[in-house]
Q: What sequence folds into this?
């Protein structure tokens, strides 16, 4: 059933209040809740943080919007806290990393399948195959070091297998820029997809940057540094899909519409009724925010918001995309970037080849971590004993032996 943001005014902003106890609620269960509940929590945390980032940037550039943005931003801050607090504290940093990588795969695959623009869909598929490999590298680290099977977090929804090799993902900046959609012609869904995937990529980048330095083992620290660098490339790639000629107030309205769309998607698909109540509350609040932004659009643009925002045809299909991922992997894993286009490996930009050769000059941590790794149920340490850890140490440079994790 289609959903329209114009059918409800939502909760008025002056009634959007909370307390600290209400803000920090009972978290989900690491093992008992469905993995997609955890993915929704991570996704909506990223969406809220993107809203905060945009609001601060908009306020720096628009005197007239400073007060309404500040009013909405305070509620967004508390919503971001409420959503982030749903993630349970029994997740280790590596387990949370596995969850971030799983979301990147399932969300990007879902968006690529639903994207009406062929070029934008190709961009998402290109990034998807790099996220597949990130999960594989982090799963290898979790298995070899902690003796823990990543499938405990993945719950068999997502394959653990190599994608486009992480050591080959490093590109010259000019090869991470893409052709933006045309604001006057692009489907609303295309605009919402670009905002959603950009927010998720930025969230993962920030998490890897913050968590990586907390590890004692130098190879683990380097792995997080390597993949965080690729995630910055992903943020560059996805945000370059946004039309830079959109005005600030138009961008604000689209951000609020996207929050409504993603919360609506969570409401429609959530299986945990406690968490679903959070999604319903946040959706009602976001409808109030959208109408404030829409009124600003009418005032400053002198246009009808319905020219930009229409009905949401269907929620984001956040479910296992295993078959789709395997199909894309089989047909597109050897594609590389040449400017804004995707080409066979042999036609890759020399600038990216040179950049990568220098960056990997002392070896690649993602190659060391996954050396000889093949996922098997029950963890590698169960199957091969101490040989797993021994192989990891042997694959490292001489000054990087010793595996000590927090």
A:
């Amino acid at each position: 059933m289609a959903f329209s943001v114009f059918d409800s005014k939502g909760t008025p902003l002056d009634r959007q209040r909370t307390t600290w106890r209400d803000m920090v609620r009972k978290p989900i269960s690491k093992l008992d809740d469905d993995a997609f509940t955890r993915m929704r929590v991570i996704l909506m945390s990223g969406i809220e943080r993107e809203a905060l980032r945009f609001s601060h940037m908009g306020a720096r550039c628009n005197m007239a919007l400073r007060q309404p943005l500040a009013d909405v931003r305070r509620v967004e801050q508390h919503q971001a806290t409420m959503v982030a607090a749903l993630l349970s504290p029994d997740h280790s940093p590596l387990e949370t990393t596995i969850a971030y990588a799983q979301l990147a795969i399932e969300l990007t695959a879902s968006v690529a399948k639903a994207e009406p623009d062929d070029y934008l869909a190709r961009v998402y598929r290109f990034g998807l195959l790099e996220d597949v490999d990130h999960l594989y590298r982090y799963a290898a680290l979790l298995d070899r070091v902690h003796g823990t099977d990543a499938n405990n977090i993945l719950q068999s929804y997502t394959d653990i297998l190599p994608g486009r090799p992480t050591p080959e993902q490093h590109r010259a900046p000019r090869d991470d820029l893409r052709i933006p959609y045309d604001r006057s012609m692009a489907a609303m869904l295309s605009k919402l997809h670009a905002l959603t995937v950009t927010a998720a990529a930025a969230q993962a980048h920030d998490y890897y940057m913050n968590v990586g330095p907390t590890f004692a083992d130098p190879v683990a620290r380097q792995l997080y540094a390597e993949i965080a660098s690729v995630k910055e490339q992903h943020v560059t790639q996805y945000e370059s899909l946004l039309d830079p000629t959109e005005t600030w107030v138009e961008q604000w309205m689209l951000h609020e519409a996207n929050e409504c769309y993603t919360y609506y998607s969570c409401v429609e698909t959530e299986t945990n009724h406690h968490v679903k109540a959070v999604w319903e509350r946040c959706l009602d609040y976001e409808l109030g925010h959208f109408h404030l932004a829409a009124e600003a659009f009418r005032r400053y643009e002198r246009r009808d918001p319905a020219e930009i925002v229409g009905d949401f045809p269907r929620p984001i299909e956040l479910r296992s995309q295993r078959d789709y991922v395997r199909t894309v992997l089989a047909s597109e894993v050897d594609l590389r970037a040449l400017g804004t286009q995707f080409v066979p490996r042999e036609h890759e930009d020399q600038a990216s080849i040179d950049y990568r050769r220098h960056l990997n000059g002392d070896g690649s941590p993602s190659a060391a971590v996954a050396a000889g790794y093949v996922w098997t149920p029950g963890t590698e340490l169960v199957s091969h004993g101490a040989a797993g850890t021994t192989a990891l140490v042997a694959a490292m440079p001489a000054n990087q032996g010793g595996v000590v994790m927090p």
Remarks:
- The two ends are 47 Å apart (CA to CA).
- The first strand starts at residue 335 and ends at 338.
